[in-house]
Amino acid sequence: MEFATVAHFSGLVTHRLDLTVQFPWVYIIIAPKAKVIYIGETYDQAGLVVRLGRHFGRYQESELRKCASKHGILKLHPPFIVIAARLPFGEDTSEPDASSKQIRLFYEGILHQYIASRFTGKRAGWSVISNSASDGTEPESIKKSCESIYSCFENTFKFLESLTEPSPFHLVLLDQKEWKDEEATIEDIGRLIERTELQLFTWLIDLLKQNYIENSDSWWIEGIPKTIRQQCQNRKEDEGISGIPPEAYLTLIDFRDIVRNNWQLCNDTIEPIAGQQGKDKATKWIVELNEMRKLWAHPIKQKYLSVPQLRIDEIRRICKKIDTAIPK
């Protein structure tokens, strides 16, 4: 698996990219003035930005600062260079699933070994301050991926070392080359969300009808929250077209409240899609789908609001998980 640079943030120039999505990452923090390097991993629910925020935030929460102090460095000063590689995960990759903590630790340990032996070991005064080690049991595919990440690390450092004076912070993101060749557009995602919305509707209505069987409309009265029923009826009356049942006026975002209202019926299907437990966390992806659907339905707005490729890839991954989880 080869990696390539897909985005570069600096203290002076930034580009739009959503770093609040839950992805597995391995990252390298370089502090050139102190000549130290920290290597870490994360699969934080709130994204890479939260984990990095902890490192550069209060001392009590900063493993970066704590590790530096153990090496006699009481204060870390800018500039900083952060190189973060998004790792493969989910069912749509043949690589080891990096949502697993153990897999991420494999990446961390191998990179620790490579940087210690090939980089800091050949530069006077440099050291790796994080604690990690490779024991040689890591899969060969991960070792090959780490070779690519390390190559990007070296090239990035050579390029940015002279630029740290005018710009005190650099964040470089790496992603897999294969994914770049299969990029989906917002139009592709819109059609995929349309299909997924119909799939969710059919599954959910069938599920309610199978479980609320006292009379023909029990599923509607007991399974659908009252506010949603009223909204559907209002939409039906506003449109004034006869022969269309009120459930035809359900919207994608309505599905979240319906699922939460029938959690005992839905949780076994919904939680695997989210990789989270609990009705609130496990249904958050419905909100994400709905936001993307709204943007896709308003092409004029797309002219003024760009969508990061990482975001599009995540929506595509969610739809694939739905396709796997929901019975055909």
Structural commentary:
With 328 residues, the chain is of the alpha/beta class. It is built from 13 helices and six strands. Strands 1-6-4-2-3-5 form a six-stranded mixed sheet, sandwiched between helices. Helix 3 (101-118) crosses helix 4 (140-160) and helix 9 (254-261) packs across helix 10. It is elongated, with a radius of gyration of 24 Å. The two termini are 33 Å apart.
Produce a short descriptive summary.
This protein is of the alpha/beta class. Helix content is 48%, strand content 12%.
Kindly list the characteristics that best describe this protein.
6-stranded mixed sheet, alpha/beta, 328 residues
Number of domains: 2
Rounded to the nearest angstrom, the distance between the terminal CA atoms is 33 Å
The largest β sheet comes out as: 6 strands, mixed
Proportion of helical residues: 40-55%
Topology summary:
Layout lengths: L2 E8 L14 E7 L4 E7 L5 H8 L7 H8 L9 E7 L14 H18 L8 E2 L11 H21 L8 E8 H4 L5 H26 L6 H6 L2 H14 L14 H8 L1 H12 L9 H13 L2 H4 L6 H17 L3
Helix pairs in contact: 3-4, 6-11, 6-13, 9-10, 10-13
